[in-house]
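User: I'm putting together a teaching handout on how multi-component assemblies are represented. Below are the sequence lines for each component of a complex, exactly as they appear in our records. Could you produce the 3D structure of the whole assembly as structure tokens, so the students can see both representations side by side? Please keep the chain order the same as the input.
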Amino acid sequence: MINKKGLLLVLSGPSGTGKGTICKKYLEKNKNVKLSISATTRKPREGEIEGISYYYKTKQDFEEMINNNEFLEYASIYDNYYGTPKKAIFDELEKGNDVILEIEMQGAMQVKKAYPEAVCIFILPPSLLELKNRIVGRGTETPEQIEKRFNSAYDEIKKLGDYDYFIFNNVVEKSVEEIHGIVYSEKNKVIRYKNEILDMFERELEKC
Amino acid sequence: MINKKGLLLVLSGPSGTGKGTICKKYLEKNKNVKLSISATTRKPREGEIEGISYYYKTKQDFEEMINNNEFLEYASIYDNYYGTPKKAIFDELEKGNDVILEIEMQGAMQVKKAYPEAVCIFILPPSLLELKNRIVGRGTETPEQIEKRFNSAYDEIKKLGDYDYFIFNNVVEKSVEEIHGIVYSEKNKVIRYKNEILDMFERELEKC
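Assistant: Of course. Below is the structure of the complete assembly, with chains in the same order as your input.
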């Protein structure tokens, strides 16, 4: 048999589609899958823990990491940096562990560009009405913000073509099962392991 | 949600890797999956049933079907024709049923060419030694035939790159589960359903 590297799973999609819940449930069910932790220059909030919520960095450290090409993606939002450090992810992939990364859509595309082997999954709402209800149901936004979010969600859905897989997130358990199927099948893709397999049989033939 | 067409699953690989057993078990576990039945000009043998073992055709009928482009693939073996009729398969796919086709490797490549949406799965032996044991274990072939079959198996494995997925057939239940994962994930592929999904959301937006 052959050794299989871990997969980097990128979960993205418009806000309100339930990426976070799917990610949490998937991790609960798959204990050897690691969650990618972001680095940030923003200050820790109450209850947040270094290395679990975020890796907290000074602005200087973060910029040094940028210069050393240590991020799969990063962005600057309201005077703070947020980014996905490569090292922790690549270490796990090498060990054969899968890593899951929940990220907004611009970040997802940066990751795909930096690491094309990443498997990008677009989480879709079952319907636009359902999406609207979910955004309203959060109760954290003004009607104006809700309208803006809803309109941008439709524009975001049009970017579906940049992704490998889609999931209509209707029932979270079903979505988790679908991710499971995707991971399984990606590890059976000829394009990922062709050379390893042919080498394996060639080595064996020499011994026959 | 969107309507999903059925998938055409093509199982192939060197002889002795257990394609037939996997196919049988997969059909047992997935009652709505249809098995593709070949057409042939050879005479029915005892116990064989029209429409289950084969569709039995006269030479004239078969050649008329060839001329009408009614086969996904066909071949002439020892004065008899064997072929995979398109119509029965396409009718099931349209109804949303998956169809499984177990076929030797040249036929598999003809199918892929005629119907690129087919999902081609290469069944691998866990090892060459295991393959040899299986061919010997059948007890149906002379030592010379066994040697020939074994050597051609290695050459056939080198064609792996033409396939979408591989499965190391070690434990048949595991292989069946892997096919299940492949089918699941293929139905979540953006490239298959992008237009249908975008149309669905657009129609909904008009109603919002």
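A couple of points students might notice: The beta strands of chain A are 8-12, 34-35, 39-40, 55-56, 71-77, 80-85, 99-102, 119-124, 165-168. The CA atoms of residues 102 and 192 of chain A lie 23 Å apart.
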